[in-house]
Amino acid sequence: MRVFAYDEHRMGLKPVYRRVWGRKGESLSLLVGGMDTEVMSWVLREFRGWLGEEEGEVWVVLDRAGWHVSPRVEVPEGVRLVFLPPYSPELQPVERVWPLVNEAVANRYFADLGALMEAVEGRWLVLQGDRELLRRHTLFHWWPGAKGSA
User: Fold this and answer.
1) Which residues of 52-81 are buried (b: 16+ CB within 10 A; e: fewer)?
2) pTM over 0.85, yes/no
3) Is residue 149 over pLDDT 70?
């Protein structure tokens, strides 16, 4: 059995300002225009399809956002949702990835949502190619399978 972390990162045309001065390392990134229980169900189906039929049961660790815990969310066979305690973002490894994603949009102007999504997608491709960077930011010592791999 494998354990995955899941989270959403909200971005919009409001800029991020800063001071100017699977098999280990697998990740799946899906860019969507909004989030609700229907989109969450689609994301879980896409995730299950990405894993492939030969994959056994997987656990997905996630927070308690309304669209995660809704009884209307359709959870595919072989996927088990494991919820973090309320108000505990420090336990979610993926939370530490969002500042890395923000690098693509900090101090930049985007004419429309498509341009913003293109920049974020490009940054995801870079991050997916740098497994060591992701590992340094997300591999908590207590995460299943982390012992000896950090």
Assistant:
1) eeeeeebebbbbeeebbeeeebeeeeebee
2) no
3) no
